[in-house]
Amino acid sequence: MSAQTVIYCVGAAKAGTSWLFDTLYAHPECYFPTTKELHYWDSLHGGHGDFFRDQLPGRIAAIRGRYEQNTETHQRAYQEANMADIQRWHDLFDGTTRDDGIYRDYMGLCRTDAKVVGDFTPAYASLPVNWMQEMAAVHDDTRAIYILREPVDRLWSHLRMDAGAGGEAAALAKMDDFLAGGEEIVTRRSNYRQTLNRLGQAFGAGRLHVELFERLFSNAALARICDFLGISRVEAKTDKKVHVSGTAVLDDDRRARAQDALRQQYNFIERFLGGLPEEWTQKMVTA
Question: One Pfam family this chain carries (predicted)?
Fold first, then answer.
């Protein structure tokens, strides 16, 4: 195999993974297909590859609509590459058949002009440890990045995203569902303890980098990530916003109840980091 590094960014969802993808995509020593979130491993594990595959033509159509209205040369070039990459992934991966060779080539391991290639799919955070071990074994040098965000903020952003056009009322209804024991997928994505323990087992010491969302959009954090990947440091575009969820206010009562529901996660991160980040404790409330 090549001497390149494969990086998996496995989340957490709504914790800045799209910003990091865009930042590393522009790095001269990295190569990533423009198709963020390949859903290769979770499709094979969960047997729902058809769901993700069936979405790809719609993604192409949406990009083509924006492309036809766009007059900016650089953006049009990216959109052309994006449509071609999505179509190629649709043609290569049927959603059910495992072919790590095709997957490695699509990520860019066949290229000689990139030190780092990889796959940014936050959904991999929910995979069991044996599947994370399969991910780690796909290449000689595989590493993982996991971004932690204040648990209630991450949950609330996720619920606002899922609420979509329903706005604040729909997002609050989803929060109430979570507090009543529902929102199973979102709950799994909120389990930092399980994800970090699995990643630690699968990738081992020195091959897992954990960053805080609240500190991510900075030159210091990006320098840490570049050092972890063994690539040159670049300047962070700290003012760039990617996939921002709709605005909606979470009241103190629901925040306090959500904190209580996620208490195990706070306790785990406090042990994992040797204390809770100040950015988190400043937001904590009591009912």
Answer: Sulfotransfer_3
